[in-house]
Design goal:
It contains eleven helices and nine strands. The protein is α/β, with parallel strands linked by helices.
Length: 270
Amino acid sequence: MVTRAAEHARELAQELEEAGAKVLLLPLVRLAKAENIQPMDAALRDLGKFDWLVFTSANAMRFLAQRGTELGIPLVGNAKATPHVAAVGPATANAAAEAGFSVNMVATHHSGRELAAELIAKVGSRMRGTRMLLPRGNRADDALPSLLRDAGAEVTEVVAYSTEPSEEFDQSVLRQLELGNVDVITLASPSAFHALVELVGREMIERIARQTWIAAIGPTTAAAMRQFGLKAPIQATRATSSGLVNAIIRHYQSSELNGSAVSSASVSSS
């Protein structure tokens, strides 16, 4: 089961199908423009004052670039006005590179905390007073900007996009999940996990976790599950669609080698 927003589910679904899986689509979240875009517009108009542009997701990069285009403000191609770029992981870095950004740093461990630690180490003694623009989703936590500010950086946070629970999905797919007919649920963001909990309720999510493998795209999503009292038995080492697919494949290969059942129906995730 792929739970990504409909516009971003295609790549993951295709890779899973190529690996032999039967894919069910249950888009739990949808992405939209930020309700208040004035702070982002102001930052874009004054982009040249920032030393670093910090991307924690490909979505943040895309919405920022799209708004720059709408305003007629080029984000790339002007060396004097374009800050250094840091990305939380390879998927975000690849999306930024495809958009024309020159990516100066990619975190080796794909979480906001690790990105902060590695960025602080890279900038070093010049961190105090370094001006950073951090475009994010409306549900992002405070760990990254807090760590950067504690190190002396001047961080400007802007909401680049909004993540909301999806209201459009196939109820029959949800029914398959409730009946225990899904082997693996893929979660590509904490928002997707929270949306799933809101959709089915705590009692149901705990029952689902006892009969279905849950695969998290990275440590941030897995951490959101732990805060709820659940574990992600499958976790990608690289926070990309390919990384998630490879983690699922390795999990099933390991199950077969160990002589355990491929089905997760009798395995508890909590």
